[in-house]
């Protein structure tokens, strides 16, 4: 990784203290819904944005959510905690991925589709993974945002676009940054003191077969399938869906829970 890119990561602010409080309550199995809601509501802007996310049709709630306590009760601590960290992270690293040829709205749509698909899928398949895989679904592409800021500051945006077109994403990232975007994301998460499970998961999200341990391998498979479906702009095209089913078979995952989650998201 280029020294200047490491410096770029070092200058990204830490997440706010409210996230630390939310994390403590999330980790405490005895904490209540009301305690979690109170910690979130200490930040009015975060509260408004979480309610906006919770009321997205992608999350499938049958009625409007008007309070954080309702959101936690209906969606679970994992999902609302993931919402909070996602919102804090995107405030710390404002979204601009124009060097990748993607608009901020396309990036946001991709993140929303991947996270909603993972949320619905794992709620049926293995809810214990929502804390790591659900959070990674929101944050796994933030390395692209960091790289974009780095390229723009150094006037390398056009050169990157040229390499992106001619050589592909990974080759372009390595040539100009000395590292892949997934490694950049993992480095940022280490700075933010996220768990080693999340750091490893994000690092191998695009290549699960390279994961060194079974837990990371398992979570990375789910995340890779979901990211394959959404594509770079959040649009779920037939070719991407076909590839996702091929990965389901190759990874020996159950097809029915994935298909149920996919159809729910596609039909919105």
What does this structure look like?
- The protein has helices at 3-10, 17-27, 33-41, 44-54, 68-75, 77-92, 104-125, 130-139, 142-153, 157-167, 169-177, 181-191, 196-203, 214-230, 238-250, 255-266.
- It has 268 residues and is mainly α.
- It has one domain (3-266): Hypothetical protein af1432.
Q: What are the key terms here?
A:
0% strand; Hypothetical protein af1432; 268 residues; 16 helices; mainly alpha
Number of domains: 1
Strand share of the residues? under 5%
The beta-strand count equals 0
Radius of gyration: 18 Å
- The CATH architecture would be Orthogonal Bundle
In whole angstroms, the N-to-C terminal distance is: 41 Å
The third-level CATH topology is: Hypothetical protein af1432
What is the general shape?
globular
Count of discrete alpha- or pi-helical segments spanning 4 or more residues? 16
Largest sheet: none
Structural class, by secondary structure, is: mainly alpha
Question: What's the CATH class label?
Answer: Mainly Alpha
Uncertain segments are: none
Provide the helix percentage.
over 70%
């Amino acid at each position: 990784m280029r020294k200047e890119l490491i410096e770029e990561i070092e200058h990204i602010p830490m997440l706010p203290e409210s996230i630390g409080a939310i994390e403590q309550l999330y980790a405490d199995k005895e904490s209540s819904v009301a305690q979690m809601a109170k910690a979130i509501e200490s930040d009015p802007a975060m509260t408004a944005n979480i309610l906006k996310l919770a009321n997205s049709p992608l999350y499938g709630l049958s009625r409007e959510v008007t309070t954080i306590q309702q959101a936690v009760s209906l969606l679970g601590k994992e999902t609302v905690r993931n919402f909070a960290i996602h919102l804090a992270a995107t405030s710390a690293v404002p979204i601009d991925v124009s060097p990748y040829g993607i608009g901020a709205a396309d990036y946001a749509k991709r993140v929303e589709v991947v996270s909603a698909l993972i949320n619905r899928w794992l709620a049926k398949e293995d809810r214990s993974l929502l804390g790591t895989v659900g959070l990674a679904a929101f944050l796994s592409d933030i390395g692209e945002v960091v790289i974009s800021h780095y390229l723009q500051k150094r006037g390398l945006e056009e050169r990157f676009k040229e390499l992106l077109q001619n050589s592909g994403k990974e080759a372009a990232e390595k040539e100009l940054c000395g590292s892949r975007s997934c490694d950049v994301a993992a480095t940022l998460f280490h700075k933010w003191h996220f768990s080693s499970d999340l750091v490893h998961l994000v690092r191998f999200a695009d290549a699960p077969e390279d994961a060194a341990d079974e837990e990371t391998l398992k979570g990375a498979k789910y995340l890779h399938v979901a990211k394959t479906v959404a594509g770079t702009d959040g649009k779920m095209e037939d070719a991407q869906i076909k590839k996702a089913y091929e990965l389901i078979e190759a990874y020996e995952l159950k097809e029915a829970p994935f298909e149920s989650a996919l159809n729910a998201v596609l039909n919105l």
